[in-house]
Amino acid sequence: MNKEQERRKLLGEEPVGKLLFKFSLPAITGMIVNALYNVVDRIFIGKGVGELAIGGIFITLPLSLILMAFSMLIGIGGNTLVSIKLGQNKKEEADKVAGNAFVLLALISTSIAVLGLIFLKPLLNLFGASPSNYQYAYDYMKIILLGAPFQAIGFGMNNFIRGEGSPTTAMKTMLIGAIANTILDPIFIFVFNMGVEGAAIATIISQALSAI
Description:
With 212 residues, the protein is mostly helical. The chain is built from ten helices and no strands.
């Protein structure tokens, strides 16, 4: 029995309670790990740049949440359709849904990145940036937006890996990015002395690894 047949048997025959336990633990772990991106950035920025920089990064949170919301919208919605199609043994249709979701994630995240970069200054002012922390927020977010497709694809497509019966693999993809970010942050901030821009570069490199 190959891996695909094993996954089908697992999803088709395993008791629901057991499946919930098997799938929820890696999913929860993955979500916690994803949240660590911001925590790790703030720890190293606080140590290497200062408290004003932390305030600047916090102001960019709404833009990050908007991107995450669209990623969840497409990832969870598309994965639900894929799961239904796989349950109906319509693998080709499931593949098409996953492919469309991938393209949609790339298009929407790119659009958010372009619009975000164009209107970044007024958006930061709207979110409450002050003269003391505005530059930190701007320097950080202009780089994070360039990596928006990596974040959206990595976060959104992760749902499909979980939905096809590989929750542990889905968790590992998130762990790869979080570990890489924890390693790269101090390198860019302390070794290369790049401040908040270094933290942003570390973040998008880590998100790219997860997406790949």
